[in-house]
Amino acid sequence: MTGGSWEADADGVEQAVRTGALPGWHQVETDVVDAYQRYRSRTSGIVADYIPTLADADPELFGISVAEVGGAVHVAGEADAEFSIQSISKAFVYAMVCDELGHHLVRERVGVNNTGLSFNSVIAIELNDGHPMNPMVNAGALATSALVPGATPAEQWERIRTGLSQFAGRQLELDGEVYHSEMLTNERNQAIARLLQSYGRIDGDPLDVVDIYTRQCSLKVSARDIAIMGATLADGGVNPVTGDRVVSPQVCRDTLSVLAATGMYERSGEWLFEIGLPAKSGVSGGIVAIAPGKGAIGTFSPRLDSAGNSVRGQRATAYLSRTLGLNVFASAAHPTEREGSR
Ligand code: GLU
């Protein structure tokens, strides 16, 4: 991903914001299908293989979904293909923990600043006196999962599964193959958890925390699921499909601000600059981008760029951010709103 290509990609689609709601149902439907057609032939990027099972993913899969705060859900391509949620889980477990324990405690224990280093960096912990820095890198995610209420690791895991299922509006299941594959190869996460323990940053057995965290990353979701999960954060914490309140509006605001600063690995600044939406991606190829008060975009395509972000997912999200008028920093009115008001 280099500077300039974003502009070429946008093909003259203006960076404008809808000050009110999304465009009408038919327009969103058309834009989602357009985004799919436009980027389906892109084959650049590499499927992640550091967790052995992930390498088996079909690189051709490409699904897009937009979930609106009003409850409408749009899909194109393989929007119901399942993949392990991986790091996208970090956003939603963070929201759950903030809801349970409050803004201040979580901010103090986990932090909110970008490390500028890779998601599984050990040096970042050392450079910051043992502070995990933010909940979207592995150190911070482990520290966050350790805070999930529960008398035993099994209770904590059940709490996580129930909470993420409420965000998705359906019961999410563990992908046992991904979980076992990662548990056999996650020495680095074990080391990070031990290091945090040595700094007094996690209570309890660090290996139990790694186990819970690996399970949360192995929950199966689709592009449709992550769009609905994101739309719950866009909707002040109410799942727009089920109508259930999952977290408070304050927690949504806190979570989205953390995602804006840290959600797209070490490309978070570039992402915000080009696309202007809080988002989270994961190494299995999912991306969820949230437009507060409007809805969320969920994409899935396994080929990743060098930072670990899905190539097609980024492009499709950038396109939809522009056509739907979602960039939270744009102050020019969207062309269709301009027509309507003059
Ligand atoms: N479970 C993966 C890990 O801890 C998640 C990585 C990611 O999606 O960024 O390495």
Q: How far is it from the N-terminal to the C-terminal residue, by CA?
A: 39 Å
CATH architecture of the largest domain: 3-Layer(aba) Sandwich
Helical stretch count?
Answer: 15
Low-pLDDT residue spans: none
SS content category: alpha+beta
Looking at CATH, the homologous superfamily of the largest domain is DD-peptidase/beta-lactamase superfamily
Provide the CATH topology of the largest domain.
Beta-lactamase
Q: What is the chain-wise order of helices and strands?
A: HHEEEEHHHHHHHHEHHHEEEEHH
Query: How much helicity do the residues have?
Result: 40-55%
Q: Please summarize the sheet with the most strands.
A: 5 strands, antiparallel
Overall morphology: globular
Beta-strand percent range: 5-15%
Total beta strand runs: 9
| Distinct ligands | glutamic acid
Number of domains: 2
CA gyration radius, whole angstroms: 19 Å
CATH class of the largest domain: Alpha Beta
In the sheet with the most strands, the strands line up as: 3-2-8-7-6
> How confident is the prediction overall: mean pLDDT?
92
What does this structure look like?
This protein has 342 residues and is α+β, with helices and mostly antiparallel strands. The chain has 15 helices and 9 strands. The chain has helices at 5-10, 25-39, 88-101, 103-110, 123-127, 138-146, 153-168, 176-183, 187-198, 206-217, 223-234, 249-262, 268-274, 311-323, 335-341, and strands at residues 46-47, 63-68, 73-77, 83-84, 220-221, 279-281, 286-291, 295-300, 303-304. The longest helix has 16 residues, at 153-168. The model has no long low-confidence stretch (mean pLDDT 92). The structure holds glutamic acid. Glutamic acid (GLU) binds next to loops.
